[in-house]
Amino acid sequence: MIFEKINIWIVEDNKDYERDEIFTKRVKAGKRTYFFDVKATRSNDYYLTITESKRKIKDDNFYYEKHKIFLYKEDFGKFVEALQEAVGHVKNDLMPDFDFSQFDAEPETTESTNENNNKFGEDLKWD
């Protein structure tokens, strides 16, 4: 499998950059996994990457389709406000009679890690 060989090379190539990842939150959601990663620049500035990873199958092999968003500190407030507004619109205006509380409990497959305890499940996020 060519893809697996490429992934291994990228992981090994990124060894020097492991110090840049400060915090990771993994959220499994059906066939998708979302990674919320706080990273540091060389000048100790921080930013967030949000990665959607979806496992797909092609020709009896699997691969991960990934989409990534980079979110910088100056945009955190605007991003959170827009996300809350959009979710509120769905909950309050589009689906006011739906009971969203069934989704409030944190699922067992959600995990948080920090630089001293990095754990990556089967959904590799390396680009």
UniProtKB/TrEMBL annotation:
Look up keyword DNA-binding and say if it applies: yes
Query: Which InterPro entries does the annotation name?
Result: PUR-bd_fam
Please provide, alphabetically and separated by semicolons, the GO molecular function terms listed in this UniProt record.
purine-rich negative regulatory element binding; RNA polymerase II transcription regulatory region sequence-specific DNA binding
User: Which of UniProt's keywords are assigned here?
Assistant: DNA-binding
Q: Where is this region: Disordered?
A: 105-127
> Which Pfam families does the record associate with it?
DUF3276 (PF11680)
Gene3D superfamilies associated with the record:
3.10.450.700
- Superkingdom as given in the UniProt entry: Bacteria
Q: Which family does it belong to?
A: Belongs to the PUR DNA-binding protein family.
- What protein name does the entry list? DNA-binding protein
